[in-house]
Amino acid sequence: MKTIAIAGGTGWVGRRVVESVRRLGAEPIVIARSKGIDLTTGTGLDQALEGVDDVIDVTNIVTQNRRRATAFFETSTRHLLDAEKRHGVKHHVLLSIVGIDRVGLGYYQAKLAQEDLVRQGPVPWTILRATQFHEFAAQMLGGGPVAVVPSMLSQPVAAQDVANELVRLATAPPVGMAAELAGPREERVPDMARRLASARGHQPLVITLPLPGATGRVMRTGALLPTNTGPRGTQTFDQWLQEST
Predict the structure, then answer these.
(1) Which of 51, 53, 122, 153 is the 20 to 30 A CA-CA neighbour of 103?
(2) Rounded CA gap, 106 and 109, in Å?
(3) The predicted structure's pLDDT at residue 147
(4) Residue 131 pLDDT more than 90?
(5) 132-145 pLDDT tens trace
(6) CB burial readout 167-201, b (16+ within 10 A) else e
(7) Which residue ranges make up each domain of the chain?
(8) Distance from C-alpha of 74 to C-alpha of 184, rounded to nearest angstrom
């Protein structure tokens, strides 16, 4: 039986990746602190990767601070790749974000640094860049009476579609940069937030914030959209709304 380790396997996407691996008939190994495995120190990695064929990395840190995010991704990725090399892992699959090479946000710059480590690393690799998830609108709303939402054009995709594509890639030969994954329809993020608030019966004041400078301009005009004809998810944001509310 094929064994696939999922780094960040208890997170929002990670849980779905674990489910997709099980449906495939493979064995998932969850790499997370709650399982006694700490990527920032390397604790528990050697035991976790014993006999593992492939690794899917969907780890995340909630911060927009470039230094903090870069330190997390670089440290975790180095520990993961070094352990994979020691145990003969055949394929490293990384989840990344569409447009991070065109948008100068600190978090995106940290993800670029992570991508570079994977490209230069000792394990055959695939990187999947995906657009924002449908759930991104909920993150923008928060829970208060006012939600300040950046003016962004996105093509949101279902988290389950992302999980399925990651598992498909992990069970195929490494391809380097995979075709970008996006949802079926372009959406304005402030509009998504307003529709979600309405569907939940919660009406905060949603203020659209045009971010200043070149970064804000490219986010408003499509820098976060896919640039190729790669795979597309099937669930629209409105369909996700109906299911989630």
Answers:
(1) 122
(2) 5
(3) 84
(4) yes
(5) 999 888 888 877 78
(6) bebbbeebeeebebbbbbbebebbebbbbbbeeee
(7) 3-133+157-184+229-236
(8) 32
Domain 3-133+157-184+229-236 is in which class?
Answer: alpha beta
Per-residue confidence band for 111, with pLDDT thresholds at 50, 70 and 90 = very high
> Number of helices and strands (H, E) in the chain?
9, 10
- Average pLDDT on 16-24 reads 97
The Cα 15–Cα 9 span in angstroms is 5
Asked whether residue 202 carries a pLDDT value surpassing 80, the answer given is: no
Beta pairing, strands 187-188 & 153-154: antiparallel
What single-letter DSSP state applies at residue 62?
Answer: -
* Single-letter code of the amino acid located at 197: A
Kindly give, in sequence order, each residue whose CB lies less than 8 Å from that of residue 101, ignoring residues fewer than 6 positions away.
112
Q: Chain centroid to CA 182: how far? A: 12
Say if pTM beats, i.e. exceeds, 0.85: yes
Q: Compute the CA torsion angle 176, 153, 11, 4 (nearest 10 deg).
A: -20
**Cα dist from 30 to 66, 82, 128, whole Å:** 27, 18, 20
Q: How many residues would you count in the chain? A: 245
Please give the Cα distance from 13 to 22 (Å, whole number).
15
